[in-house]
Amino acid sequence: MTIQADEAPSGVRPVTLTVTAEPATHPNTRISATLGGEKQGLAERLALGLFILVPFAALLAAAPVAWGWGLGWRDVLIAAAMYFLTCHGVTVGYHRFFTHRSFKTGRALKIAMAVAGSLAVEGPVVRWVADHRKHHKFSDQDGDPHSPWRYGETVPALLKGLWWAHMGWLFDGEQTPQHIYAPDLVKDRDIRTVSRLFWLWTLLSMLIPPLIGGLLSWSWQGAVTAFFWGSLVRVALLHHVTWSINSICHAVGSRPFRSRDRSGNVWWLAVLSCGESWHNLHHADPTAARHGVLRGQVDSSARLIRWFEQAGWARDVRWPDAGRIAARRAA
């Protein structure tokens, strides 16, 4: 069986995944790059809920705390550095490289991007990629893991769908089959190892900010405030920005390009999403390394890929040229 993960433009070789027919074995014997296999157990659901609710509660408490105690330039810089490191780990690594193969690179950068994306605490790399490839295959149709239109187009249905697309889908016990949607990553020993060590990257992501804050201030208070802002608040903010691409960017926004779904461009999310909220062009041309292609559209992920290319770390980058952009313009 052959699965084409993305629609490729004319003259560009598409990303094609060839999968042999699934053997008639017990489901538990399927190859999985995620500990626990394809189904979510109770422990995983509880852990998932913990990592959603605790950082979100910290985010809600952030405003009053900011005017009280424990927020200084040290905490802001630590949180910002961790935020954009992990955000680009997802946008450049998880998304544009591993999911859509927008460019090629060597082993060292491949592993580094997988680890940086894992530090965002959005799930193991192989599971994330499998979910996103399935999303593109069925975008805003039956089979899409997180379409806000799954319940209909009335206001109550859309509100319910937005909740589902934003975070409800994360609790779906039936996981996307990794051996079907990400067989290339399942077979990659390096990425399979990084994916199975997700618990370690989560732990490091939580501990790095307080470690830096404690060493810089040489105090426990510096470690505690850095943990609050650089770990809890940073993870919560990044989670909700990422989930907003699934929910908000498939419900509202401008649509200057033709796509077979309802993906839109939402400008006010561009900086925090590292360029991912220029979502309409992405769905019109999924393998493109740049999403913000129009004047004034900030896309820091594309800039980072350009720097990788200039340093010789990235090659065969799929930059959208003028003809490629014009061909996807909406009438």
Automatic annotation (TrEMBL):
GO terms for biological process: fatty acid metabolic process. Residues 77-290 form the Fatty acid desaturase domain. The keyword Iron applies. InterPro entries: Acyl-CoA_DS, FA_desaturase_dom. Pfam families: FA_desaturase. GO terms for molecular function: oxidoreductase activity, acting on paired donors, with oxidation of a pair of donors resulting in the reduction of molecular oxygen to two molecules of water. GO terms for cellular component: membrane. The chain crosses the membrane at residues 46-70, 76-94, 197-220. It is found in: Membrane. It is a multi-pass membrane protein. Its main location: membrane. Keywords: Fatty acid metabolism, Iron, Lipid metabolism, Membrane, Oxidoreductase, Transmembrane, Transmembrane helix. Belongs to the fatty acid desaturase type 2 family. PANTHER family: ACYL-COA DESATURASE, BLL4393 PROTEIN. This is Acyl-CoA desaturase. It comes from Streptomyces tateyamensis.
